[in-house]
Amino acid sequence: MKKTLKILPLLLLIPFVSGCSLIQNYFYTGETSENSGGNGGNGGNTGGNGEGTGTVEQRKSIVLDSVLSATDSSYSSGNYGSFYSDGVNYEYYRTTVSYDSYLRLLGKRYQYEYLPSYPSCIYNTTPIKGINGISITYEGESINSKLVLFNTPGNTYEYQLTNVDSFTNRTFEFGKEQYSYFAITCDYGYIEIQSLTIFYTNVSQSNSFLDNYSGYRYEPVTYSGTLTDGVSSVYATDADGYSKKYTYYSSSYVLENSSSLYASDVAYTDPVDVSNYYMAFHAFPANFYYKNDSNSSELYYYFGEYARLVSTYTRTDGYANAVPYNTAPDTYYPYYHELDIDLDGSYRTSNRGVGRLVVWENGFSCYDLTPVIVYTDDHYATFREYNNYGGFGPRFNAQSQTAHANYCPLTTY
User: Fold this and answer.
1) pLDDT for position 204
2) Torsion sign over Cα 93, 94, 97, 103
3) DSSP classification of residue 158
4) Per-residue pLDDT reduced to its tens digit, 374-392
5) Is residue 9 part of a domain?
6) Closest Cα to residue 285, out of 206, 177, 198, 359?
7) For 169-198, b where at least 16 C-beta lie within 10 A, e where not — what string?
8) Average pLDDT along the chain
9) I need a labelling partner for 74 at 20 to 30 A (CA). Which of 80, 147, 342, 410 fits?
């Protein structure tokens, strides 16, 4: 069948994947000012360093050196978490801890070009009243690393963190300008933070800490009739906007006919492909299996690099609280599956990484009983809902509580 490019849906998805900042509503491209020399005035802020001297003498400080080195380092591809220090809650995102016990912010990963990750970052989620200076000792090579300060979208400043090959201290002074929130972000490459001190006056500032949320949801392509291996098939829109054929194969059939089937022809690993397959057949691709399946070793041997694990749960805690799941029939709990997704080519069934698709088999109460699939590239910190048309909606809070908007249904198209 001739491939037909679908243009309109791709245009609709551009806002979902084009942002390169943690909170799109705040980390926008606006006035930017750079503090040169470490102590110099801030050209973009009124008052400069001189006019802020009286405030500086009265201000308080928070030193985060020791707590930064204690953050989670379980996954080399980046971790998400939070910590509490001096009455303030902080979150870190896509970070790890270096051999020298310093917080390392990792750059973006693009295993799937249509699903870019958010920048790595560290930020506060409860306000620090009157931030008027930050001192940071760091080193690293990164494109577009920033220190971002804000209260509201109209009062945001960005300071570029220039590349340095050895640990260097930079102190940013904001003069009369005072903020309630800060974030240090890293787009590409890396930076390591050895020391971080926040200066503040304890003067209250107002803020709203959510990003906008919008998106579209399409009716899924589904197969009707009895499933027949190698015969039952559908055409659905892939990640490139083309019509792609998906054919049903059960794992038992694949093993019985392994001599005549290539693993690469029957396996699906791309998040959109796996989502389309499940929505069409309400079954996992043949290369997905449970760790304790009786034929798991055979499937692992046959599929090799395409082998993926799946797990099923009925829990009502954790990230289940982030979505309006429908309960399974005659129960009080949801029925959902976690399907492993390789984010950087390092996936092994013994080292599964942080990428998953979560399939809510009975759907969400805001729609109907049709399954709903969400994607995470940060081990359940955030989710993005599959729109059934080759793309994913905006990122929303899962186990994260404050960095993004909470779940909101996509608009049915």
Assistant:
1) 53
2) negative
3) E
4) 999 999 999 999 999 999 9
5) no
6) 359
7) ebbbbbbebbbbbbbbbbbbbbbbbbbbbb
8) 82
9) 147
Using an 8 Å Cβ cutoff, are 337 and 353 in contact?
A: no
21 located within any domain: no
DSSP string of 376-404? ESSTTSEEEEE-SSS-EEEEEESS--SSS
Sequence-ordered list of residues with C-beta below 8 angstroms from that of 208, at least 6 positions apart, any chain = 152
Burial of 251 (0-12, 13-18, 19+ CB in 10 A): buried
Do 281 and 236 lie in one domain? The reply is yes
Residue 122 confidence (pLDDT) = 93
246 burial (CB, 10 Å; 0-12 / 13-18 / 19+) is: buried
pTM recorded for the entire structure: 0.71
Which of 275, 26, 66, 41 lies closest to 151, judged by CA? 26
Residues 115 and 16 sit within 8 Å (Cβ to Cβ): no
The span from the CA of 29 to the CA of 26, in Å, is: 9
Task: Provide the pLDDT confidence category of residue 4 given band limits of 50, 70 and 90.
Answer: very low
Q: Are 181 and 136 in contact (CB under 8 A)?
A: no
Q: Is residue 17 part of a domain?
A: no
Number of domains in the chain: 2
- Pairing verdict, β 216-217 and 411-412: parallel
Tens-place pLDDT, residues 326-370: 999 999 999 999 999 999 888 999 989 999 999 999 999 999 999
Please report whether residue 207 resides in a domain: no
Question: Which of these, 105, 101, 102, lies nearest to 92 by C-alpha position?
Answer: 105
Same domain, 148 and 53: yes
| Angle of CA points 285, 287, 292, to nearest 5° | 110
Q: Which domain does 118 fall in, by range? A: 26-200
Buried b or exposed e, range 306-330, using 16+ CB within 10 angstroms: bbbbbeeeeeeeebbebbebbeeee
Q: Hey, what are 201's tokens?
A: 């006056």
| Same domain? 137 vs 113 | yes
Question: Which tokens go with 291?
Answer: 């760790």
